[in-house]
Amino acid sequence: MKKLLITLLLSGTTILGFAQGNTHKQELGKYKGLAMTPPMGWNSWNTFATNIDEKLVKETADIMVSSGMAAAGYNYIVLDDGWMAKERDENGNLIPDPVKFPSGMKSVIDYVHSKGLKFGLYNCAGTQTCAGYPGTRGYEYQDARFYAKLGIDFLKYDWCNTAGITAKEAYNTMSNALKMAGRPIVFSLCEWGDNQPWEWGEPVGNLWRISGDIYPCFDCEFKHPENWSSWGFMKIVEMRKDIRKYSGPDHWNDFDMMEVGNEMTTIEDRSHFAMWCMMASPLIAGNDFRKMKPETLAILTNKNLIAVNQDKLGIQGFKFTIEDGVEVWVKPLSDGAWAVTFLNRTEVAKKINFDWKKNSIKDTDFGYEADFNKNIFKIIDLWKNKEAGTTKKNFTADIVAHDVITLKLIP
Ligand code: GLA
To answer: Are residues 226 and 366 in the same domain?
Structure first.
C-alpha cells in the first residue's frame, strides 16, 4: 500500500512537473514585426549569379557603410543561390562552399554584423535550388536550426524543383521551422506568384515575390531559351498593379531585386527606383557596389524617394490615370499627404499639363481621398528637392521618354 502510494505520488509529481515545465508554447507562423516597412538591402543574384565569395560580401558590406547606403536605410546583405557546396554532409547538414568561403560562413556573418548590418541566405523549397545546389525539401527543421545557429537574419526561399508539393504547405512548413528554431529571421517567399502567395502569405512570411525574375530593361520581355521569361520593370509593375490590397506592413508584395545601376540608362534607373518606391516594394539593390557610379548611388540613396517607400502607412500605390502616354501613379502617405509619379511610358518627349481639379483621387482599396476642389495641397518635387507650387494651378512640365517626375502633395 505504502509502495503504491509512493508510486502514485511520484508519478503525480512527474506529471505535474512535466506539465509545469512545458512552457514551450511558441505560436506557429512567421516571426511577426520584422518588416514593418519594406526591407532594404542588397542581394548578390542580379549581378553575380553563383559567382560569390567572402571577399565580395566583405567589400559589399564595407561599401554599404562607407557610401552612405546603410545610413539611407539599406541594411540586409543577402547571398543568393550558389553559397553552398554541391552536397550535404554525412549528417544531412548544409555546407557553405569551402572554396568560396574559406574562413567559414560564421566568420563572414560576424563581419557583416560587426558593421551594424544584417545578413541573409537563400535556399529553395524543392529538392534542389534553381542553380542545382541542395534544396531544403525534407530538411526544413534541420536547415532552420542551421540558419539560426549561424545567426542569419533573412532567408529567401525559392520555388525550383518542387514537383508534387503544394506552395502554401511548403512555405508554411519552413515558416514554422524558422519559428521553432528560435531566431527572428525575416522570411522572404520567392514563389514567383505562381500560386498567389498574396492570398495566403501574410501569416507565413514577411514578403513574397509576385512575378518571375526581373530583367534590366524598361518594358521588355526577355525570353530564355529554356522556355521561361524575365521581365522589364514596367512589365512587373503592370502585371501586379491590382493586388495592392494584399500588401502592407510586415507582408509586402515584392517586385524583385532592383536592376538600378545595371544595364539601363540613368533615366530608366530613376523611373525603376521611383516605381519601386511607389509600389512599397522591398528595396533590394542588385548592382556591384564596387563599380557603382555616383549617379547610381544618388538614385539609390535619394532620401525623399526612400521616405515614400518607407512611409509608415505601407500602402502600395496604383495607376490613377494616363494622359497622352504619361501615366500618373499615386500613393497615399501618412498625415494626409500623397506621392504622385508622372511616368512617360512612350518613346518620345511629352508635355505634362495636369489639371488637379479634374483629377481628384479616390483610393477605394484603402479608403483615402484627395479632393482637389475642396483642399489645396502644397507640391514638392521630390527629385529636384524643391517646392513646385500648389494644386490650385495645373502642374506643367516637360518629360523625356521613360522618365519620371515624382511629387509629394502636402495638405
Ligand atoms: C530564381 C529566383 C531568382 C534567383 C535565382 C537563383 O530564378 O527567382 O531571384 O534567386 O532563382 O537561382
So the answer is: no
